[in-house]
Amino acid sequence: MPVITAEGEDGVVTAWLVDGGDRVSADQLIAEVQAEKVAEEVRAPAEGIVYDLVPVGEPVPQGSPICRIAAAEEAEGTETAETVGEPPSAAPPAAGERPRASPAARRVARELGVDLSTVTGSGPGGRITEADVRAAATPPGRALSGLRAVIARNMRESVRTTAPVTLTSTADVTNVPAGHLTARVVRTVATVLPDHPPLWGTRDGDRFIPAVSADVAVAVQTDDGLVAPVVRDPAAKTVEEVAAEIAALAERARAKSLEAVDYEGACFTVTNLGPYGVEAFTPIINPPQIAILGVGAIRTVPGFGSGGQVEARRQMVLSLTFDHAFVDGAPAAQFLAAVRERLEGGDG
């Protein structure tokens, strides 16, 4: 598994372009992998017979092997698939006959306690593969797998290693120009952060690392899950420029064409569930950041104008989750108030 984001963090094989037992040439494309939604291709480092392929969707630490390649003369006796030099059989084994299974399948069957005579093989001539055994051992229901499992572990790790507290504040956005709300909030956050050092940084274990720039990540929903690519220095751009950059990042995220660098360097994240009608929520911090701001739906409510008359006002709830291990409640509240006031003034 190539190191895409950080060595030791999980990645997954999303597709094998070869089968166990295939002969591959050096630099031949053999697999596609992903880590945190960053996709890469894997090429064979040498010529030989490929075997011990990790299952598609099974998390593998970055930097660890996802398969093995042996010279043809060394492949004898390995747990190669399936059928190096073995002609396919036209029929499955007869009743009472020892099930035909790859060495890997037999090993996994022993480990998982699976009776091979009860497994239907999907390999050539009904040969049982490792994947067949694992499928037979899987209990009913749908377990998290692939990138969804990686995301789940990361979310749990965030909750386990932080002391999350969420503050909410209602912003009156009656005077805020319509359109580009997410971009306006991102730009506002980047503008306000340098004036609030306790939140302007990231953590490394129990160490606080001050940031040197106000790059802000934006949560983007894709078919595979939530990702958070980074907008660079949004405070120095117009709202329209930030909106165009967010749209381009979202399009690339959904096309799975983002690279590792697109996720690096943010000191804060903004996530907007307003389009779904959600008014307030408790967003989860994206480590190593120490805070995240949730944006709720805009509601029209009765309020008072400058002359005391009742009039329609537009309001939305801002939800700030911060790591109380690094930031106290008062500094977090001051930051949230500064964001709210700047938005209400239309200066975003």
Structural description of this entry:
This protein is α+β, with helices and mostly antiparallel strands. It has two domains: 10-137, Beta Barrel (OB fold (Dihydrolipoamide Acetyltransferase, E2P)), CATH 2.40.50; 162-344, 2-Layer Sandwich (Chloramphenicol Acetyltransferase), CATH 3.30.559.10. Helix content is 22%, strand content 26%. The chain is built from six helices and 18 strands. The protein has helices at residues 103-112, 130-137, 146-161, 181-192, 239-254, 329-344, and strands at residues 10-16, 23-24, 29-35, 38-43, 48-51, 60-61, 68-70, 164-172, 201-204, 207-210, 216-218, 220-222, 225-227, 230-231, 268-272, 291-295, 299-304, 310-323. Strands 8, 11, 14, 15, 16, 17 and 18 form a seven-stranded mixed beta sheet that branches. A four-stranded antiparallel beta sheet has the order 4-3-1-6, with helices on one face. It has a three-stranded antiparallel beta sheet with strand order 2-5-7, with no helix packed on it. Helix 1 (103-112) runs parallel beside helix 2 and helix 4 (181-192) packs across helix 5. The model is unreliable at 79-91 (pLDDT under 50).
Features:
elongated, OB fold (Dihydrolipoamide Acetyltransferase, E2P), four-stranded antiparallel beta sheet, alpha+beta, seven-stranded mixed beta sheet, 348 residues, Chloramphenicol Acetyltransferase, 22% helix, 2 domains
